[in-house]
Amino acid sequence: MELRYPSFLPFSLLRNEAKLHTFGTTFLDSDNGPDSSLLCRELKWLVEDTIEDHSVLSQMSIENGKRSVRLRAGVEDLYNMWKQRIEERKPFQYIVGCEHWRDLVLSVQEGVLIPRPETELIVDLVADVVSENEDLREGLWADLGTGSGALAVGIGRILGSRGMVIATDLNPIALSVAAFNLQRYGLQDIIELRQGSWFEPLKDVEGNIAGIVSNPPYIPSDNISGLQAEVCRHEPKLALDGGLTGMDYLFHLCNGAASMLKPGGLFIFETNGEQQCKCLIKYLESDLRGSFCNVDIVSDFAGIQRFLIGFRQQQT
Amino acid sequence: MTDQELMRQCEMDTFKASGPGGQHRNKRESAVRLKHLPTGLIAQAVEDRSQHMNRASALARLRTLLALNVRSSVDLEAYSPPPELLRILPPKSTVRPSDTGPQIGPNNPKYLLGMQALLDVVFAVEGSVAEAAKFLGLSTGALSRLILANDSLRMAVNELRTSKGMKPLK
């Protein structure tokens, strides 16, 4: 279906910017949601994503509707999408169907957690470790709770042809989205998807895993309803709710890593921050004493101590 | 210096970090602003929708700023152009050893270091292209052309020349 519209139509959507400024800080004040400058930016991205030929973007305001542009969605659809954004607080990424993350564009939809910029750092941490460790680079890696497949694709590209990644998730919607994303980046031969809970689908490789990465749900249950509407109304609770303290699955991952990793194998887990990381370190030193070594906390770019990293103790 | 080492010297200050971030938050403020603490230089990138990409762009811009603004003093009495500078000079330069390899241009990542060393010389001779050319084994015209071939380099040299009351290169 060919959709051609006078170019002023999608750009009149941008003139909604004026109305957006009346929103000001309404969402920001109510639940720490987006302010008007962020909404304007999203609107611009929405229009950009809809226009097929991006070269017309530079001539936007000059031509005044004299030429027509090809759109991937009708102008009415655009208005409706934007209405959903403002009225229902539907996440921008679900509306455009994708998120730009690291150097990738990942498909996302309702039912799948939108990959966070903080999580980008995990891929860099993996790259650092394998650059000096041939053994881990050529090993089997696991991305637990893969969601959109972000981490699996990210580390799959680092490991190249000699490594392997198994990505697991409980949710079949997530697995179908991850499948799409890993194919989009040509990683079908490197990444295998398995459905199931955490380590359950990995019993056959127990003790042989070179590295485990995960961004498990880590928000305390009671905090979820207080989050910005985009997150608590639309993103899957399954990917966010970590139980009373938010740490249910983090503990579970630590317990599992102690036996699932091969000696010298690496784990990296994303957490809520300093408190959770410190609590986990205490746990590793007490209940899992002797299982791990070189355990460390790595901060994200906002200075929050977000990542717990460590290695399974070599057996003597 | 690796990207990582350079990042460690910087403060990334786009974060009006409200709250714990991570899973809690869906507000894509992908713009990145880096402040290089040792020098105070600031580089930013806002174009991309991914923070990671903007970080990479900002770092690249910072490297250019460092090359343009951080000067090392040069001993003109005993001057010998360093290898990184030799690599950006054209082959006809009389101080360029034959095993230097092909001349590298602005798109080569190593170009910045050469540009930085070239600016050190130009600053040491107070903006005189004729004087600098002598140290680099080139004619004045050849050095002029080299400088004019790169916008950042040209602007930095002309800024110096203007401040010394000289005419800008054209």
TrEMBL record, chain A:
<dbReference type="InterPro" id="IPR002052">
    <property type="entry name" value="DNA_methylase_N6_adenine_CS"/>
</dbReference>
<dbReference type="InterPro" id="IPR052663">
    <property type="entry name" value="RF_glutamine_MTase_cyano"/>
</dbReference>
<dbReference type="Pfam" id="PF05175">
    <property type="entry name" value="MTS"/>
</dbReference>
<dbReference type="GO" id="GO:0008276">
    <property type="term" value="F:protein methyltransferase activity"/>
</dbReference>
<keyword id="KW-0489">Methyltransferase</keyword>
<dbReference type="GO" id="GO:0032259">
    <property type="term" value="P:methylation"/>
</dbReference>
<protein>
    <recommendedName>
        <fullName>Methyltransferase small domain-containing protein</fullName>
    </recommendedName>
</protein>
<keyword id="KW-0949">S-adenosyl-L-methionine</keyword>
<dbReference type="GO" id="GO:0003676">
    <property type="term" value="F:nucleic acid binding"/>
</dbReference>
<dbReference type="InterPro" id="IPR004556">
    <property type="entry name" value="HemK-like"/>
</dbReference>
<keyword id="KW-0808">Transferase</keyword>
<feature type="domain" description="Methyltransferase small">
    <location>
        <begin position="137"/>
        <end position="219"/>
    </location>
</feature>
<dbReference type="InterPro" id="IPR007848">
    <property type="entry name" value="Small_mtfrase_dom"/>
</dbReference>
Automatic annotation (TrEMBL), chain B:
<dbReference type="InterPro" id="IPR000352">
    <property type="entry name" value="Pep_chain_release_fac_I"/>
</dbReference>
<dbReference type="InterPro" id="IPR050057">
    <property type="entry name" value="Prokaryotic/Mito_RF"/>
</dbReference>
<feature type="domain" description="Prokaryotic-type class I peptide chain release factors">
    <location>
        <begin position="9"/>
        <end position="67"/>
    </location>
</feature>
<dbReference type="GO" id="GO:0003747">
    <property type="term" value="F:translation release factor activity"/>
</dbReference>
<dbReference type="Pfam" id="PF00472">
    <property type="entry name" value="RF-1"/>
</dbReference>
<protein>
    <recommendedName>
        <fullName>Prokaryotic-type class I peptide chain release factors domain-containing protein</fullName>
    </recommendedName>
</protein>
<dbReference type="GO" id="GO:0009507">
    <property type="term" value="C:chloroplast"/>
</dbReference>
